[in-house]
Amino acid sequence: MSILEAKNVSIRYITGDFKDIGLKEYCMRRLKGNYHVTEFWADRDVSFTLERGEMLGIIGSNGAGKSTLLKAVSGIMVPTEGEIYREGTIAALLELGSGFDGDLTVRENAYLRGAMLGYTRKFMDETYEQIIDFAELRDFEDRPFKQLSSGMKSRLAFSIACLVRPDILILDEVLSVGDGAFRKKSEEKMREIIKGGATTILVSHSLGQVRDMCTKVLWLHRGKQIDFGTDVKEICDRYQQFLDGKLAI
Amino acid sequence: MIQKLKTYQFLFEELVKRDFKAKYKRTVLGMAWSILSPLLTLLIMRLVFTNFFGRSTPHYTTYLFCGNLIFSFFSDSTNQGMTSLMGNAHIFTKVNVPKYLFLFSKNVQCLINFGLTLGVFFIFCILDHITFTWRFLCLLYPICFMVLFNVGVGMILSALFVFFRDIQYLWSVFTQLLMYMSAIFYTIDTFSPQIQRLFLANPVYLFIRYFRLIVIEASVPSLQYHLLIAADAIVVFGIGCWVYKKYNHQFLYYV
Questions:
Q1: How far apart are CA B25 and CA B86, in angstroms?
Q2: How near does any CA of chain B get to the CA of A109, in Å?
Q3: Rounded Cα–Cα distance for residues A133 and A162 (Å)
Q4: pTM beyond 0.90, yes or no
Q5: Which of A100, A229, A240, B135 gets the most CB atoms within 10 Å of its CB?
Q6: Sign of the CA dihedral with A167 first, then B10, B148, and A100 last
Q7: Which of A18, A21, A23 should be substituted to probe chain B, the one whose Cβ sees the most B Cβ atoms within 10 Å?
Q8: Where are the domains of chain A?
Q9: Contact (CB, 8 A) for B103 and B150
Q10: Model pLDDT for residues B120-172, shown as the tens digit of each residue
C-alpha cells in the first residue's frame, strides 16, 4: 500500500489585477463586464506514488511547479483536479525563514514554530536545550528575533524542524542552510532522519544530492511531468543534458 | 473536532501569548493603557452628554459605562478580528494549520481586555451606589453570546478582508453608525413604540440593554429576549463558519 499517491494532480492559480482592487472597484468592473481573471496552471497532470521509506527527489528549473506541488501534498492547497491520497502525519519544511515574529524572543519563536509543526509542549520543553545547542544560539536566547542575522534565523528554523518524526517529510531546499560548517551538520542530521524510516520528498537544485539520496525522481518542467521513475541515474543524466542545452523537451 | 482541538491546543496557546505580548509590549503600562482608554472615552461622554441626557437618566455614569463597555468590546474584537487572517498570511501559506485559530486567538486577547474593563466597571458601580444582587450572575449569558457573536462577525470580516481590502474603511464607517444607533449615551424612551422595537434588531443594543436591565434596574429580561440574543449570535456565528468552510482553500490565492 502506498503511503502517498498523487493521481493526475493539476493545480490552477488565478492571477490578475483583481487582488488589490477592493470592493468598490470590484462592483464597478462587474457592472461594466470588465472583470477578468487569468488562469495559470502551475501543475498539470502530475502523478506519482511513494512507498514507505522511499525518498523522492523533485527536480526542475525555477517555476516548474515544484513548490506548488508540495503545498498540495502537505494539504495547504487542494488540487484543482486530480486527487492526493496520503497516510499518516506530514511535516512540511517550506521556506524555512518565514513565519517568525520579529518582536518575540528566540525562545518564544522556537516554541511558536514548534507548535506550528505540531509538536507538544512537553516535547518542546524536553528538546528546547537541544535545539538551541544545535542552532548555536545559546547567547541569543532572549534577544528579539529581528536582531538575528539571516543565517542565524535559518539555523534556528532548521534546528527546530529537524526534530520532526513524521511519516512523510517534505524538504524544500532546506539542505542549503547556513554556512559551510552548519550545512554539513544539517545534511548529516537529515540523513539520520531519512534513515529513521521516514518517507521523504526532497526538492533540490543540487543534482548531486538527488543522485546520492533519492530512490525515485520526478522531473517537472513548467508544470508538466517530464518523467517519473525509479531509475534515478538515467533521469538525472537526461536532466543534466537538458540543463546543458543538449536535450530539447 | 475534540481531537483536532487537542492537537492544536499548544499552537493556540502560543498564538494567544504572541498576540498578548504584541498588544501590551511587555509593559505594565501597556495594560494600564488598555483600561485607561475606555475610561477616557467615558469621561468625555460624561462631560459632553450629562447636560443633555444626564439629568433625566438615573445612574447616568453607569448607564454610559454599560454602553461603552459593550460597544468597545464589540468594535475592538471585530476590528482586530478583521485583520487576523491577513496578518498571519505568512503562516498559513506555509504551514497547514486551521485558519480560525488566528481569529480565536485575537478574540481571546479582546476578551481579556474586556474582562479588565469589566472589573473597572464593577468598581464604578460601587461608586455609583449600585446594589449587587444574585442577578449579576445572569451577565454571563450575554457575555458568552457576545463572544460567539464577535467571533462570527470576525470570521465574516476577516474573510471579506482577504478579498476586498477596502472593507476596513467601510467597516469603520459602519461601526461609527452603529455606535450612534446603539443608544449608548441617550435613552430610547422618547421614541415612538415602533422605532423602539426597531432597536431590538440591533444585536449590540440587545447586549447593552441586557447589562443595563440587570445592573441598573435589577430585573432579569424576558425569555424571548434571551432567545433573541441567542438566535442573533448563533446565526452570525453559523454564517461565519460557513464562509470559512467555503473559502478555506481560496484565501491562499488572494494574499
A1: 21
A2: 9
A3: 13
A4: no
A5: A100
A6: negative
A7: A23
A8: 4-243
A9: no
A10: 999 999 999 888 888 999 999 999 999 999 999 999 999 999 988 889 999 99
